[in-house]
Specification:
D-Amino Acid Oxidase, Chain A, domain 2, 9 helices, 24% helix, 28% strand, 8-stranded mixed β-sheet, FAD/NAD(P)-binding domain, 2 domains
Length: 400
């Protein structure tokens, strides 16, 4: 490696949910870490913002994700204790679907039924309650009477900006060098390591972790990844409550509600967080991929809020007016089958890719960072095996 470059054990590219967790856990293990981000995290340019993210432990997307969620809950509490920050609120979570539990979510059929099955297999406390009982407990939600209602009392929400900031602060505390406002351009293989070229200079290390979210395919220069990953803009809306006290975290849970058979017949929502205004409600759309992450705009017109009201909120969530206080957008980086893509690049063993997380990664991110640190250190990491990149092919289909 040439003179004049900074040398580390591991370079981390990207400091969102996964990248900040990787930087923290790598540095905590005593490794020399340089962590880069083209923006100044926490920021609103990628995926790790928007005031709140649902966290749950019984994962209807598949049993492979449950151990990550369970471990992440423990880690969030540890990070809170280390930093004094409040990162996770256990408000309870409702997962609501058809009476047969067969509705789809994130492309996964029978999502409610699979959530129930995961809770039973992993011993996660939960209840199955009737729609009448759910309406009595949570009067701001209106049920038809033919729903399957799953309630997980230990679930809740995470504060994404706080989580990212806390993990960056801990990474620094453990000796990581954090460089923001610096864009990684290329990863070059060398005889004894890797070189990362940025718009400010070069850095050399034994390994590199690419946790760049929607920028991952451009940085990795892997044709298989570019052919497999798509990015989508998702919109979030905060509606005015009639009585904010009805939506306080101790009275109103997070929820995921599948109310029809179509792929877009579902939405999710949150209580009003302390110090904030508005009831956050969102859905997911995959009809128009972004041409690139820089194409995302935070401009959201009133028509999108009206659509949210008419398609999802009306007749289901009472106590909110038709006034949208604010809106925001984030990016989902989607892999085939809405899976995670995490592991060593099969063609470049010194490169660990930590993306995509397909819109359901934030709640797992603390555990992902810990496991990636173990992988970089050469420890056996069985929990990441289902998410490896070995199955990627150059003709992989994009999500739609």
């Amino acid at each position: 490696m040439s003179a004049g470059t900074q040398i580390a054990d591991v370079i981390v590219i990207g400091l969102g949910a996964a990248g900040s967790a990787c930087a923290y856990h790598l540095a905590k293990r005593g490794l020399r870490v340089i962590a880069l981000d083209r923006h100044h995290p926490p920021h609103d340019k990628g995926s790790s913002h928007g005031e709140s993210r649902i966290t749950r432990q019984a994962i209807g997307e598949g049993d492979d994700y449950v151990p990550l969620a369970l471990r992440a809950h423990d880690l969030w509490r540890e990070i809170e204790a280390e930093t004094g920050e409040t990162l996770m609120l256990q408000t309870g979570a409702l997962v609501i679907g058809g009476i047969d539990g067969g509705a789809a979510h994130l492309g996964k059929q029978d999502f409610v039924r699979k959530t129930i099955g995961a809770a039973r297999r992993f011993g996660i406390p939960h209840e199955l309650i009737t729609p009448d009982e759910a309406g009595r407990r949570f009067p701001m939600l209106t049920f038809r009477g033919d729903e399957t209602v799953y309630f997980e009392p230990g679930a809740g929400l995470l504060r994404p900006e706080r989580c990212v900031a806390a993990q960056i602060a801990l990474a620094r505390r453990h000796g990581a060098v954090i460089r923001t406002g610096e864009t990684a351009l290329k990863i070059l293989d060398e005889v004894d390591g890797v070189r990362v070229t940025t718009d400010r200079g070069d850095y050399c290390a034994d390994q590199v972790v690419v946790a760049a979210g929607p920028w991952v395919s451009g940085i990795s220069e892997d044709d298989r990844l570019a052919a497999s990953v798509s990015t989508y803009r998702q919109m979030m809306h905060w509606f005015e409550p009639v009585d904010p006290a009805e939506f306080a975290p101790e009275r109103f849970p997070v929820f995921i509600w599948m109310h029809g058979a179509g792929a877009e017949d579902w939405f999710y929502g949150f209580p009003i967080l302390p110090g904030t205004t508005g009831v956050k409600i969102a859905d997911e759309r995959f009809d128009e991929p972004l041409p690139g992450p820089e194409a995302q705009s935070q401009e959201i017109g009133p028509a999108a809020s009206r659509t949210m009201l008419g398609r999802h909120i009306s007749g289901r969530v009472s106590g909110v007016t038709d006034r949208c206080l604010r809106s925001s957008a984030c990016i989902y980086t989607m892999a085939p089958d809405s899976r995670f893509l995490i592991g060593r690049d099969p063609g470049r063993e010194r490169v660990i890719l930590v993306s995509a997380c397909s819109g359901h990664g934030f709640k797992h991110s603390a555990a992902i960072g810990e496991l990636v640190a173990e992988l970089a250190a050469g420890d056996p990491v069985s929990l990441l095996a289902p998410f490896g990149l070995e199955t990627l092919s150059t003709d992989a289909r994009r999500n739609s």
